[in-house]
Amino acid sequence: MQLSYFGHSCFSVKAGGKTILFDPFITGNELAKDIDINNIEADYIFVSHGHFDHILDVVAIAKRTGALVLGVWEVYDYFSKQGLQNVQPINPGGMAQFDFGKVKCVTAVHSSSFPDGSYAGIACGYVFETKDGSFYYSGDTGLTMDMKLIPEFIQPDFAVFPIGDRLTMGIQEAITAAGFVKVKKVVGVHYDTFGFIKLDPAKAKQAFENAGLQLSLPGIGETIEI
Fold this sequence. Notes:
Blueprint: E1 2-5, E2 11-15, E3 18-22, E4 44-46, H1 52-55, H2 58-65, E5 68-71, H3 73-81, E6 87-89, E7 95-98, E8 101-107, E9 124-130, E10 133-137, H4 150-153, E11 158-162, H5 171-181, E12 185-189, H6 201-210, E13 214-216, E14 223-225
Parallel strand pairs: 3-4, 4-5, 5-6, 10-11, 11-12, 12-13
Antiparallel strand pairs: 1-2, 1-14, 2-3, 7-8, 8-9, 9-10
């Protein structure tokens, strides 16, 4: 599978013949100033929760690409009211089949509100099973024992975890989460964007290596095979 990183928690995965985009926050991210959202393709856009740093560019990209937008009920309702017609709800516990494969929505431990302060439902993550492989995106979350249930439904080949600490998991919690999910490969996101989530990349990679794990930290705009 190919994974392209666009900064913060925004990335896309090419799997099952489709491009699946997550949590578009680009135009408001100074670190991603060289990324042109008009060049980002998407067949699907999955939203983990309602915070501005995960939804800012959803409408612009969805309108241009025609991508199907998915999120919990409140996210579905929010984007429907913003004029998106190709949008569907999926809540934790639910599973849905698409042309690229299947997706299970799972819980995340995190706050969630829209930019205007209104309720955005609960935060969530997603587990994907496609003909090209399987993966888990936890969304913004702290470590939770519920992660141990992930392999009971779909065994991921890799996981995408936030590792910036303070607002989400840090390095050590992400290492523990990898054990819960039974993956050896992790892609780290949600770091460096703000002053209070700065990451020491060398320290992070060494910690994962010491735990027998592989941590990938692609550069913004970089595409990796995973």
